[in-house]
């Protein structure tokens, strides 16, 4: 899974962390059959005085 994600991310460019997270979630669900995923993406040092910014999304239906 890691190698497939790496390959996909090398082929594309994302301006927004949200778009990157959505791409990862969609790929994991479609290509690996995950019914539910939680994706967290963090970028370090992009704003003065802020250590990191990030997003976390959940997609699909979480199994009980």
UniProtKB/TrEMBL annotation:
Cited InterPro entries: FolB_dom, GTP-CH-I_C/QueF
Top-level taxon of origin: Bacteria
Entry annotated with the keyword Lyase: yes
GO MF annotation: an example: dihydroneopterin aldolase activity
SMART domains, per database record: FolB
Keyword Lyase attributed: yes
UniProt domain Dihydroneopterin aldolase/epimerase: residue ranges: 1-59
Enzyme Commission number, as recorded: 4.1.2.25
GO BP field: folic acid-containing compound metabolic process
Ranges in coiled-coil conformation: none
Keywords assigned by UniProt, alphabetized: Lyase
Name the UniProt record assigns to this protein: Dihydroneopterin aldolase
Organism of this sequence: Chromobacterium violaceum
């Amino acid at each position: 899974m890691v190698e497939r994600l790496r390959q996909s991310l090398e082929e594309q460019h994302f301006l927004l962390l949200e778009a990157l997270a959505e791409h990862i979630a969609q790929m994991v669900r479609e290509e690996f059959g995950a019914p539910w995923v939680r994706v967290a993406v963090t970028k370090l040092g992009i704003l003065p005085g802020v250590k990191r910014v990030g997003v976390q999304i959940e997609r699909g239906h979480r199994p009980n």
